[in-house]
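Handoff note, outgoing to incoming analyst
You'll be picking up this chain. Sequence as last confirmed:
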Amino acid sequence: MKFELGRCLLSERLMESGKSAEWLAKELLFKPERVYDFIENKRVMPLKIAISIADSIGCDVRALYELIPNE
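Most recent structure output, in case you need it:
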């Protein structure tokens, strides 16, 4: 089955983990603006970065975006 990416759920995952966007940026050596671009859907996370983010905040990589079935 194919999927389209819906909105980014990073903000929700960060809240669940008790972490901030600033913390995540520092953890991954990113500028905070980059993390906010993901949160605001201005950029799509490359898979490598999404895996690092998911590992850092303790969630499944698939939980970072709404997944919309495309039939």
